[in-house]
User: What shape does this take?
Amino acid sequence: MHQGQDENWSTLNGPEIQRRVSRIVRRVLFNLRMPDSAVDDVCQAVLIRLLALKDDPALEIRNLDAFLFTIARNEALRFREKAGDKLHVPFEEDQITPGLSDNLSELRRIESGVLLRNIWKRLSDEERDIFQLLIIGYDGKEMALRLGVKHDVARKRVSRLREKLRELLLVQRRP
Assistant: This one.
């Protein structure tokens, strides 16, 4: 078992979490070609994010290091943006520190899950129903039948939902 997998992270002590966060933040900053002077600021942001997520009952972490890496990368990019460096930094497999490349798919899965959970919380019950039907692959007519509305009404609701999803995705990407 790799370090970070199947751990109950809420039972780890403060110094252990700080060491792991610091180690991972240093890797992230190296991968993003950011200066070591940002380590303290990014570590603090990661620890604050962890503290906020600690009591989330819906949060299931299968690989702590992969989860920390995702948070560290996001916080480092936010820090870089606030510092005025707007360069696009690609996140490709060949730019990941050795030992973490096997976690890339896990990182992407976690990141997608967190993003979807945050968006899901902001949708109304009706919007959630429409979203589920879209994901399943219903077309406009099938959706109208399922929702018990006219085809034009269903199309308008889908259009409004798509617009809301675009707005929510933009909000999620902002610092």
Residues 1-6, 85-96 have pLDDT under 50 and may be disordered. Residues 122-173 form a domain with the Arc Repressor Mutant, subunit A fold (CATH 1.10.10).
